[in-house]
Structures are given as structure tokens and as C-alpha cells.
Amino acid sequence: MNDGSPPPSFTPAQQAGLDSRTEDQDRTLATMHRLEAALAAPAPRNEAAWQRDVRDALNVLDDVTRAEDTNADRPDSLLSDIKRTQPILASRVRGVRAQYRQVRDAISSLRIELERGDGHPSFDFADTRQRIAWILTALRHQRARESDLIYEAYYDAFRSDLETGA
């Protein structure tokens, strides 16, 4: 929707929230790529190193997603702003947050499980790869739902599409 007027924009606080979200997601994405690289390494005859690399990458993912979750729950976060200023979207904000916590719980649970099984001779590499692939897919799905929510909130607030910079 372009009528020649400048596009509407976020307030400075909203822009700071968007910037913070982007930084968190960039950090999480880089960590996801590190974990994918560890998972793709050959495991047979390299069990201990494979387990260590996957466990270390999963520990980092646990840390960065915990920080991302904490930041998204802050009162000045973009999600909090949407929930506060657009009550019609509040249930979707709660849903996105709940889904993220479920993924976070799965990461933490698997991380603990991997630490307990470290070096165990019957460790199932294929199962571990599949379970972590599910977690990574769930993170991507959650990220897409959150992005959709933010774009919808922007459109509802300004009756204009959010410029993506693409």
C-alpha cells in the first residue's frame, strides 16, 4: 500500500525490540548451523568425539535459546508490546511463547540425556540425529509463527506492509 507518503515506522522502543529480536534470532540460527554441522559428522569409529561435539553444540543452543526466551519475555520486548497494544493478538503471543518453551524444554531434556549417556557403547546416533532434527524443525516453525505474528501486528497497527529489506 503505497500512496506516496513515507511508510509508517516503529517507535524507538519498538525498533529496539525488533533489533533485539533479530540479534537473538541471528545468534540462535548460527548455533543451529553449528549443531547441524556436528550432527552431519561421521559417528562410527568416532563416537566419543561425535558425542562431545553434538553435546557441546546442543549446550550452546540451550544457552542461546534460554537468553532468547528471557529477552522475549521482557516487558519491553516486541512480543510484550504486541500483547499490550493489540489485545486481539494476545492469545497468539501466548501461543508463540508456549510453543517456544516446549521446544526449550525438549532441548534441555535431550541435553541432560546426552550428558548421562556420554561414552555409552550402545549410544544410538541415528535416534539422536532424528530427535535433534525434530528440535531444529520445531525452532524453525516457531520462528515462522513469530514472524507471521509480528508482520500481522504491524499491518494491523499501520495498515501497511512491513518492509523486509529484501
**Category from helices, strands and their pairing:** mainly alpha
Mean pLDDT across all amino acids: 86
Number of helices: 5
- The count of DSSP E runs of length 2 or more, i.e. the number of strands, is 0
- The value of Rg in angstroms is 19 Å
* Largest sheet composition: none
Low-confidence stretches: none
Question: How many angstroms does the end-to-end distance come to?
Answer: 17 Å
Residues in helix, %: over 70%
The general outline is elongated
- In N-to-C order, the SSE pattern is HHHHH
| Residues in β-strands, percent | under 5%
Count of domain modules: 1
Structure in words:
The protein has about 170 residues and is an all-alpha fold. It has one domain. Helices cover about 75% and strands about 0% of the residues. Helix 3 runs antiparallel to helix 4.
Summary, kept brief:
This protein has about 170 residues and is mainly α.
Q: What tags apply to this protein structure?
A:
5 helices, elongated, mainly alpha, 75% helix, 166 residues
How is the topology of this model organized?
Layout: H1 12-40, H2 47-73, H3 78-85, H4 90-116, H5 125-158
Helix pairs in contact: 1-2, 1-5, 2-4, 3-4, 4-5
